[in-house]
Amino acid sequence: MRTRRTLTAAFAVPLLFGILSLTQLMSRPRFATYYRPDVVQLFGTGMCFGAALVALVIMLRGPRNS
Question: What is the pLDDT along the chain (66 residues), one digit of tens a residue?
Fold first, then answer.
């Protein structure tokens, strides 16, 4: 049960950071023109979504503790 909680947190935290970062980036008026800091932030957002996806797959494919 402890592993499932850890994986849930490993899924939720990067997903939350990714969503917050993406909404903050999209709310900028200069979103249509990409600058270097915006590209770096998009890479970081993508890495957060990727980490959340990996944690979700591990959580769903892991052994059942029922």
Answer: 566 677 778 788 888 888 888 888 888 887 677 788 888 888 888 898 998 888 888 888 876 665
Going by C-alpha positions, the residue among 53, 39, 45 that lies closest to residue 19 is 45
pTM of the predicted model, to two decimals?
Answer: 0.62
Q: Which residues does 22 contact at the CB level (< 8 Å), separation at least 6?
A: 45
Token pair belonging to 40: 């770096």
In sign, the C-alpha dihedral spanning 45, 47, 53, 59 is negative
* Cβ neighbours of residue 30 closer than 8 Å, sequence gap 6 or more: 38
CB atoms within 10 A of CB 42: 14
